Amino acid sequence: MSRPPLQIGTWGKISRDEVSPGVWRAMARFRDFDGVTRKVEARAAATSKNDKGGKAERLLIAALTDRAMPAGEDITSDTRITKLGLIWWAEFEDADRAINTRTRYRDILENYVSPGVGGLRIREATVSTLDRFLKTMRIKHGNGTAKQCKTVLSGMLGLAARHGALDGNPLRDVATIPINHKEVRALTVTEVGALRAGLRQWEADKKQAGRYPTTDILDVIDIMLATGARIGEALALRWKDVDLKSEKPTVTVNGTIVYVPKKGLTIQEHPKSANSRQKYFLPSFAVEMLLRRQIGQLEANPWDVVFPSAVGSLRDPNNFRRQWRSASLDLGFQWVTPHTFRKTVGTLLEASSGVAVASAQLGHSSENVTRKHYIQKTHEAPDNTSLLEAFGN
């Protein structure tokens, strides 16, 4: 009868023999992670007459132990979720992730996952246990937070499965977390005209009264309407990204404003997605606005941004949102957020040129994303009256 195969990552009986006077060899069969069983050996000079290969065996065991843990971390079914989270985070952080993504996932891991299930061992992370945890997250913190907890846990337990601590990822079988997407609402061309005219007068009144330090909200909105850029991308626009001398003036979105914990605001040198890094041809109203700002700029700011804060620093997207909220309440457009302008661009382009053009302008990787999240539905069936008239004859 043949001997049973070794388990992956384990070794068999260690043998010793003296290969030359005073030099001993320790050898064992080790089953590697590719499933192949190989002989592994270590040699060492005897430390004394009574050594008989003891040093060689100790060296062999150390080598076999290292070989059994190729990732540098020992993850077993008895590893606690808290430790698994630290190992997973080290891998996740080492990858090329956006700053905001790293910040958000770190918050989810530290403030929700670890306190909620961190004391469990990996073998205790069953479908039913994880399902109860995620349902508790939904009740206490909402569907969005629960979905992010599921994403982080799925990454962690996927790592555990790759290390052989689980047969599969139990997150695949937990209940689906519903996300209620609001129906897309965009501004019409008429509404955009009314908003811009009203905001222009609102800023003039505030400037004349001397009660409002920021009177360029409309300029930022105009660049979003001209390109479809996100608010963080618009505020990260630098003069080196602007070309007003070409026959067709352009701006290039190369980054976005992000907040780094303990460091403050900075420009992330790439937009939210790789597809968002692109050059935009500018309509005349945006060209005129940029020329006016370029000519009227009294002094350069350290970041060379087109839309600095009142003190010349990077402008916080959250501060801009608060400024816009104040204006929108006075103008009767309180339902409009900075992201509404991106949806407005998508809706206009889809209606006139099709979803492919809208998707390309917004830098989406999929037309489905554009169709689902950025185009307002008309709720109007096509005019088929000439065909349907046949039923009345």
From TrEMBL:
PANTHER family in alphabetical order: PHAGE INTEGRASE-RELATED
UniProtKB keywords: DNA recombination, DNA-binding
Organism: Arthrobacter terricola
GO molecular function: DNA binding
Short name of any one Pfam family annotated for the protein: Phage_integrase
Biological process terms in GO annotation: DNA integration; DNA recombination
Protein name as annotated: Site-specific integrase
Residue span, Tyr recombinase domain: 182-392
Family matches, as InterPro entries: DNA_brk_join_enz (IPR011010), Integrase-like_cat_sf (IPR013762), Integrase_catalytic (IPR002104), Integrase_recombinase_N (IPR010998), Tyrosine_recombinase_XerCD (IPR050090)
